[in-house]
Amino acid sequence: MLAGASVAVADRPASAAPGEPPPRLTVGQVPVPTGAGVYRPPVDAPVIDPFRPPPHPYGPGNRGLTYAVAPLTPVRAVGDGEVVFAGNVGGALHVTIRHGDGLRTSYSYLAAIAVSVGSKVTGGAIIGWSTEVLHLGLRTPDGTYLDPELLWSGVWVPHLVPGGDDGARPPPEPGLLLEVVRERSGPVGSWLATGGASLSMVRSDTLAALDRRLRIWMHYAAELQASVHVRRFVDGFEQWHRDRLDCTEPDDVVPAPTERRIVVEVGGIGSTSESAAIARIDTSSLGYDAPDVVRFSYAGGRVPPDRTGSAGLGGELDDPFGVVPVTRYDAVASQGDVVESGRRLADLLHDVARASPGVPIDVIAHSQGGVVSRLGLAHAERTGRLPPEVQTLVTLGSPHGGADIATAIEATRADPAGAVAIDRARAHLGVELDPSLPAAGQLSEVSPVVDQLASLPAPDGIAFTSIAARGDLVVPAGRTDAPGARRSTVSLTGISAHDRLPESAEATREILLAVVGRPPTCRALHDVLVDVALSDGIGLAEDTLGAHLAGATLLAPG
Fold first, then answer.
1. Do the Cβ atoms of 145 and 137 come closer than 8 Å?
2. Which domains does the chain have, with CATH numbers?
3. Is the Cα torsion angle 334, 339, 342, 347 positive or negative in sign?
């Protein structure tokens, strides 16, 4: 530890105009600044796990922001204040700063600390250095956790979660920081932290690795039970019965919309600005004019317009979105942090709506793009930047429940032989999924991102439809379910079903139904049961392979 080291002061962020206080709102009795010049992020790095308020004090969630950072990245105070805690809690180093408005920010999982209790710091001062992750928490004086990101977003939408003494007096700082350790370390760390054993000699990253192994083991243990698969057949029958009350007959003719609409396409993992399955959807039959087709770039903004008009914009002079940034991206960029990709998509939707105000926007996404779209819409809603023009979300073969092959990659990460077998399976399926890049871990069925998606409905006012392929070997149909989404399955099968889904005639009809606000096509019971049988069989085969390959490494931390 480097407690007592000198504190480096960075340039202060811009403040409000002279004589004008920054804009403020109130949460309870605590004034909360919302001006972008009052607070700023502690590091320049992507957020890999956003604020996810738990349902109760000991529930799962994330009581702050978790950043992916390089080891020994300088961590800076987000604003002026006084250090009220600096030390070890639960095997990790933490610093807590009390700011002049009463708010407290905590910086967890530090490699070293540069300040001591009682130190006065200014915004931008170095308070420590990071490990491979950094957790930033924000609390009111009574211990209530808030979303730190909104301090510098310019829009304050508080999410209150249980914590502390509800206003009696400030709770003990180590006890509150221990809640962060419990969340990151999972059930093993929680047991140790609450008395199962001492954490003082156990590294928090070791606990997190052990918890990850146990989560994978429990996932496979559940998936290999016969009762789980029987239950899915029962659920399929019940879902069919409900859908019969609200579906579109197969012989109904559905005309495309005649009013102007914009479609934002989001490609999947392994896509590039030049090649993406999502670009093969039949936008003209869906009623979109060529200039109103915009494809998201994983590098930010949109991909370059297609001058032929076949996959986007009909030429530079006809471009209604000239103010929207244009960038190219490669397959590596599409496998970056999906949370950060979601933020970039939120920016694109904002720019597109600003360029054509009042024109309805539909988001159509393939594979991983559906996950990115849901995260982007949630981020836009949380920060008050969701355009009202966004009306529809349609996802095609998206792993809302995680991808089996990503789970297998995560399980075999420490086993070279298992990793080789998974690489062969990836090559056979044509899946572009680099285990060393963030998306592979984030799409695992046991990842924090997938945990978040399990309870993340589409924002109010946005109609959400998830379309699956019956025989999709990359994302089995059962993994495409999402809360609040209408479910539709088409009859595609085969090794290329996943890539062919966006261009299939059946999927085009289901997209059209979603865009015009009608329910999916009615299906016969035997078709639904075949869907469940084939999808569940694919998932079972892949889980069996993953469990077999991972068996030797499931309990080995690392």
1. yes
2. 24-185+193-202 (2.70.70.10), 229-550 (3.40.50.1820)
3. negative
